[in-house]
């Protein structure tokens, strides 16, 4: 269990809080809107109305005690930037800030963010990948080069083993797991047989994945 501070309870911040609650983490949530704070109370450990650009207010929260601080402010970049900077000055262990444009990412990183999330950009990439193939179920971009992709077994793979497909030699791809009836099997061997109705989890370079699956 970790202790997480979320600043900003718009749609993005609220959904993060809900997911963290499902994972049984302790969540402290902050927003200037009383309505948003009250709406978040059912799925956070505690919530306060406050101005995150006020150093005295932030200091009173004991920033060093949180495992991570998430700045989810989406409607005021100046406030997001100031909050990010203040958190780092107050000794935050990890600051994750939201950006809504590419240029914002650069400023946030320069002003104390350890990591920047860009929901719109990431969702756009995920949606574009999903639209390019009927087989794709999920997609995770690890960095500029590597991705993990889950896709339903292509028709011409039905009845073949991992060794027979030889994806590592042909495309440099690694089979991480096979899902069947909602259960993921990560114990993969060359003899693992693939069949219709399964999905496969693959790791590799994006350009290799695109070539293999005609994306």
3D structure, described in words:
This protein is an alpha/beta fold and 215 residues long. Helix content is 35%, strand content 26%. The chain has nine helices and eleven strands. The strands form two sheets. Strands 3-2-1-4-5-6 form a six-stranded parallel beta sheet, with helices on both faces. Strands 7-8-11-9-10 form a five-stranded antiparallel beta sheet. Helix 4 links the parallel strand 4 and strand 5. It is elongated, with a radius of gyration of 21 Å. The mean pLDDT is 88.
Mean pLDDT over all positions: 88
User: Which structural class fits the helix and strand makeup?
Assistant: alpha/beta
Number of helices: 9
The quaternary state of the protein chains shown equals single chain
Query: Per the principal axes of the C-alpha atoms, what is the gross shape?
Result: elongated
Number of strands: 11
Order of helices and strands: EHEHEHEHEHEHEEHHEEEH
Radius of gyration: 21 Å
- How do the strands line up in the largest sheet? 3-2-1-4-5-6
Q: Level of helix content?
A: 25-40%
Poorly predicted spans: none
Termini separation comes to 39 Å
Percent of sequence in beta strands: 25-35%
**Biggest beta sheet summary:** 6 strands, parallel
Sequence-ordered SSE layout with sheet pairings:
Blueprint: E1 3-7, H1 11-22, E2 26-31, H2 34-40, E3 46-49, H3 55-59, E4 68-71, H4 77-89, E5 95-98, H5 102-110, E6 115-117, H6 119-131, E7 136-141, E8 146-152, H7 162-165, H8 167-171, E9 174-180, E10 183-185, E11 199-205, H9 206-212
Parallel strand pairs: 1-2, 1-4, 2-3, 4-5, 5-6
Antiparallel strand pairs: 7-8, 8-11, 9-10, 9-11
